[in-house]
Structure formats: structure tokens, C-alpha cells
Specification:
Layout lengths: L14 H7 L2 H4 L3 H17 L5 H20 L11 H13 L12 H37 L4 E6 L2 E7 H26 L1 E2 L15 H7 L4 E2 L3 H6 L2 H27 L7 E2 L18 H24 L12 H25 L2 E2 L1 H8 L6 H10 L4 H18 L8 H4 L10 H4 L2 H6 L9 H18 L1
Parallel strand pairs: 3-4
Antiparallel strand pairs: 1-2, 5-6
Helix pairs in contact: 3-4, 3-6, 3-8, 4-5, 6-7, 6-12, 6-19, 7-10, 7-19, 10-11, 10-12, 11-12, 14-15
Length: 460
């Protein structure tokens, strides 16, 4: 195939330079968007009288057949072509003759590639949101199942206060709902058509950019032709959304890894989402969760990559911007794989209520409730805090817990203690007394579940 740009030069470049310059090995995935964009462009050219209706029909019919042939496998994309845009235009011209050469009127590859990428990321954004919604649904169902399962809550990875396992799981559901919101916001900025910006300065033809944008489902058009071809903010923002999503998945994966260890034994993952050891027959490894954690660094790398590519580029288009595709495609593929494995991994995991409850009974995680007991008896909180700290120290020295410490021992620290203190520090009571909005009480968890289901319907 010849080069679309030959004329000023011979179009002959060395094999090394040609391979280095080529992008078709990765931008071939944009063939659907490129053909859809070209069909809309041909219709716009005919509408504006720039080409005839007959020519437009030849172009659109020819492009539709090319799409069908690629989809069916009858046409193989030639990876010796410079890019997907060249391949499709050359294939069209070979099939329909010189009419095919009219397709590129009032268009540049600069605005064409920006258009294709925006169309592609619109579809990917929608698909990723669907996958996040599936994961939120799995988490919410699991939280409902374990809404009253008492477990220790942690700060600094130290047992802190009693919570329910359902409450802990819902924290991730709310994180992921924010991710869906971010992708929705990002979608609005992706959903702007650059086509008609041409190389950078617009065109002398009397085109209708709004018509073309509407044909392709865009909300509007870029307001500055230079910005239209040089803007890759939407790529950086999209990868940032992917990166923050991965941060949330990675944090969840880390806890799943901890919870499924013998040291915690809070959960068991289904065999389908674990692997074994080649030498240690007793092992059941949480490799899927570990891979999600590891692949997060990969997506962060994609974000760093695109920001570095863009940081010193003069306006308008530069060949550096070709690097955007491999980075964003990698982020898309990685995020989708992680979501695909995460939802069923959560859906099929089993929580061990007894293990969690046993852990909650240790570590003095009801000490705050003991302090609150004294506060309600009239003790200032700071004084109550100090007293309870001394009681915990006494228990540790004497091998006791707050529940097993006798009342007469309590009274050595404060005469405000009475028999009702044991009800106040009962782990289940400690959980269900936390009725503040968003708290861990079962009733509060149930409200959160309702709220999540409502938000899923609204966002989705």
C-alpha cells in the first residue's frame, strides 16, 4: 500500500522506520469506530453538497461491506499498513475506485484518530461501568448475607472496635459507586466530537460538524480546532479513573488475601479462584486477588506514561500522541480483566462467623464502649479514657478480658461501675448501639444496602 501522505516526499522510508512509525498493530482495534466515523463523514459531505448523493451511497455501502467482511473474517487487516485509517481507506478505494479517494475531503487523520479514540472510550466507559455495577451487586449481596456477623474493625492493622462484616464490605461498595460516578463524569468530557477540526485549522469547505457529531452520538463539538486535535485530557482522565478504581480493587484484594490466611481465617475463597503450590500440597493461594493487586501498578504506569507523553508537547498534533493508544488500551484491558475475576470471586467466597467473632472477643475492642459507659455516668471523657486504659493494662497483666473482670475489680478503678457495665461492653450490643448514620449497627447496614441499590439504579 502507498502512503496517504506521499507527494511532498516519495513516501519511501526504511523498513526499520516504517515499522517504528506504524501503529496498526494496536490501533486496528479501532476499525469499527473508524468505519462508523467515515460513514457519518460521507453522509455529511453529501448533505453539504461537497460530494454527490450517489458518491456518498457508494462510499457508505462500501464501508458497510468492509465492516461485515472484517467481522466475518473474510477480510484480514493488513498489518503492513501504516495504521487502521490507511488500511480502510485503501481497501475502500481498491473496491469502489476513485470515488474512495473523495472520502478524506475536509478531514485529516489528526481529527479522525481523535474521533475514533473518543468513540472507542465511550463504549469502554459504558462497559467498565457495567462491570463495576456487577461487582457492587456481588458485594452488596454478600454484605446482606453477613450484615450481623460481628468482626473486629481495624486501624493501623490493630484491632480497634467491633463492627459487622457486612458493614466492612459495604465500604468497598461505596468506593466503587464513586468510581462509577467518576466514569460518568469522564464520559461527558469524552463525548465531544473533534471531527471537522482537520489538521489543526479547520477547513475551507462549508461543513456541518454538528450533523456529523449527532450522527455519531456525540453531545457537541470541540470549540477550537487546535484543541480538537491536540486534546488528550480525556485519555489521561480516563486512565486516572481506571487507576483509582484499581486502587480500590487493590485495597480490597489485600484484605481478601489477609482474611483468607490461616492467621485470620475470616473467609475461604472458592477453589475456582485460588491456586495451589507445586511443592507444598497443603497450600491454597489467593492468586487472583494477588494478581489484581499486582496489576494495579501496571495501570498506574499507564497513567504516568500518558502524563509524561503530554507534559511538553507544543500545539497542535505531534507523533508522540500515537503513544496514547497502547497506554489506554492496556489500562482498559487490565481493568476489565480485574473486574471480571473480582465479582465472581466475591460472590463465591464464604465468611466464617465464628472465627470473626472469636477475633472480636480479643484485643479489648470494646474499650471505647467501657469509656462511654463512664461518660454516661457523668465522668468526663478524657478521665474515662485514662481509667479504661488503666483497666486494660491491668487485664493484660492478669490474663483477663473486660468481660471476665469481676465487678469488685472494676470498682477499684471507679465507684461508678455497676452490674449494667457487662451489658454495655457486650460485643453484639457494642455493634448495635452504633446507630449513627452510616454506622455499623445492623439497622444502619440495612439502610446502606437500600441506599446502594438505589444509587446503582440511578447511576446505571
Amino acid at each position: 500500500m502507498g502512503k496517504l501522505w506521499q507527494g511532498r516526499t516519495s513516501g519511501k522510508v526504511s523498513k526499520i522506520a516504517d515499522d517504528f512509525n506504524s501503529s496498526i498493530k494496536f490501533d486496528k482495534r479501532l476499525f469499527k469506530e473508524d468505519i462508523a466515523g467515515s460513514i457519518a463523514h460521507a453522509k455529511m459531505l453529501a448533505k453539504c453538497g461537497i460530494i454527490s448523493d450517489c458518491d456518498a451511497a457508494i462510499l457508505t455501502d462500501g464501508l458497510a461491506v468492509i465492516l461485515d467482511d472484517i467481522m466475518s473474517g473474510a477480510l484480514t487487516i493488513d498489518e503492513t499498513a501504516e495504521d487502521i485509517h490507511t488500511f480502510i481507506e485503501e481497501t475502500l478505494t481498491n473496491r469502489v475506485g476513485d470515488v474512495g479517494k473523495k472520502l478524506h475531503t475536509a478531514r485529516s487523520r489528526n481529527d479522525q484518530v481523535a474521533l475514533d479514540l473518543r468513540m472507542h472510550l465511550k463504549a469502554e466507559t459504558t462497559e467498565i461501568k457495567d462491570k463495576i455495577a456487577a461487582l457492587v451487586g456481588a458485594i452488596t449481596c454478600k454484605a446482606e448475607e453477613y450484615k450481623d456477623a460481628v468482626c473486629p474493625g481495624y486501624t493501623h492493622l490493630q484491632r480497634a472496635q467491633p463492627i459487622t462484616f457486612g458493614h466492612h464490605l459495604l465500604a468497598y461498595a461505596f468506593m466503587l459507586l464513586r468510581d462509577m460516578d467518576r466514569f460518568s463524569d469522564c464520559f461527558d468530557r469524552i463525548n465531544v466530537s473533534p471531527i471537522g477540526s482537520c489538521a489543526l485549522a479547520g477547513t475551507t469547505y462549508n461543513t456541518d460538524r454538528q450533523f456529523e457529531a449527532k450522527e455519531l452520538g456525540f453531545n457537541g463539538v470541540s470549540q477550537n480546532s487546535i484543541d480538537g486535535v491536540s486534546d488528550r485530557d480525556f485519555v489521561a482522565e480516563f486512565i486516572f479513573c481506571c487507576s483509582l478504581l484499581q486502587a480500590h480493587l487493590s485495597r480490597f484484594a489485600e484484605e481478601i488475601i489477609l482474611w483468607s490466611s490461616w492467621e485470620f481465617k475470616f473467609i475461604t475463597l472458592a477453589d475456582e479462584f485460588t491456586t495451589g503450590s507445586s511443592i507444598m500440597p497443603q497450600k491454597k493461594n489467593s492468586d487472583m486477588a494477588e494478581l489484581v493487586r499486582g496489576k494495579t501498578g501496571r495501570v498506574y504506569g499507564d497513567l504516568t506514561g500518558i502524563l509524561t507523553v503530554l507534559k511538553g508537547l507544543p500545539l497542535a498534533y505531534n507523533k508522540d500522541m500515537q503513544e496514547d493508544k497502547e497506554l489506554v488500551f492496556d489500562a482498559v484491558d487490565t481493568v476489565k480483566m480485574c473486574l471480571d475475576v473480582f465479582a465472581p470471586m466475591v460472590k463465591t467466597m464464604t465468611a466464617h462467623k465464628e472465627s470473626m467473632r472469636a477475633a472480636a472477643s480479643k484485643g479489648f475492642i470494646n474499650a471505647t464502649d467501657l469509656a462511654d459507659y463512664l461518660v454516661k455516668k457523668g465522668e468526663p471523657f478524657r478521665s474515662a479514657y485514662k481509667t479504661c486504659g488503666e483497666i486494660v493494662s491491668y487485664c493484660i497483666q492478669n490474663g483477663k478480658t473486660l468481660e471476665t473482670l469481676a465487678l469488685d475489680e472494676y470498682k477499684k478503678f471507679s465507684d461508678k461501675f455497676n452490674d449494667d457495665l457487662y451489658s454495655a461492653i457486650d460485643i453484639s450490643n457494642c455493634v448495635n448501639k452504633r446507630v449513627s448514620e452510616g454506622g455499623t449497627a445492623v439497622a444502619s447496614v440495612e439502610k446502606q444496602i437500600v441506599e446502594i441499590k438505589l444509587k446503582l439504579n440511578i447511576i446505571h
